[in-house]
Amino acid sequence: MPRHALLTRGERYMCLLTLGWRQNQDTEFTFLLPAGSTECFYQTTVKNWSIGVEYQVIAGAGLDVGFTLISPSGYRLASDFRRSDGTHTVHPTEDGDYRLCFDNSFSKRSEKMVFFEVIIDSGNDGGHEEWADVATPESMVDYKLEDIRASMDSVHRHLERSRQALVMLRAFETRDRYLLEDNLWRVSFWSCINLLVMLAVAATQIYTLRRLFDDKKRVCT
């Protein structure tokens, strides 16, 4: 559940969110990072596992944030400054909570929308025991159980990589759509300004020409 804590450095509130994990389960999250603030998230891991973090700024002026990955023992494992995206992997992990911090303190007026994914991998497949229970020597005479396990592991890894690639492509699509909408608004705004300027210039020219040819002097006879 979300928690709130007071930062000792900078005296700024952070939003602390503990992301639940399960074996080989990935977590996706999209949040709004206010201007001039820092938000951190905590991910619990087990020793000798691996954790991967991928993030993408999909909306906001500049499309950049700062990112820091800190280990449970307090070591800074990765640090990015004003990046639009990034990927970091830690292997092996240690017991405890890894801290993922996103920094927007350098932007005083623009908030950012950030998408990130946390990938937890235990390094083994929990389905091995189930396969071992189901496969008996009588029913699997013509097959090698180890070959089946290796094939299943390979398929699982490829499916996970495909899913992760699709997730990141969806984040890129969201960012590109935001850029297109923002550029469309700018083009429409300046087009209207140019149209108004052209109409004003045309009206001024017509008025000036009429004043030049308008002779108000009367001829007395």
What is the structure about, briefly put?
The chain is of the alpha+beta class and 221 residues long. It has helices at 128-134, 145-213, and strands at residues 2-6, 13-19, 26-33, 38-45, 50-59, 65-70, 76-83, 85-90, 96-103, 112-121.
Give a description of the structure:
- With 221 residues, this protein is α+β, with helices and mostly antiparallel strands.
- It has a domain at 22-123: Jelly Rolls, CATH 2.60.120.
- Helix content is 34%, strand content 34%.
- It has helices at residues 128-134, 145-213; strands at 2-6, 13-19, 26-33, 38-45, 50-59, 65-70, 76-83, 85-90, 96-103, 112-121.
- The model is unreliable at 1-23 (pLDDT under 50).
- It holds the Pfam family EMP24_GP25L.
- InterPro entries: Emp24-like, GOLD_dom, GOLD_dom_sf.
- Its main location: endoplasmic reticulum.
- Residues 38-120 form the GOLD domain.
Could you outline the blueprint of secondary structure elements for this entry?
Layout: E1 2-6, E2 13-19, E3 26-33, E4 38-45, E5 50-59, E6 65-70, E7 76-83, E8 85-90, E9 96-103, E10 112-121, H1 128-134, H2 145-213
Parallel strand pairs: 2-4
Antiparallel strand pairs: 1-2, 3-10, 4-9, 5-8, 5-10, 6-7, 6-9
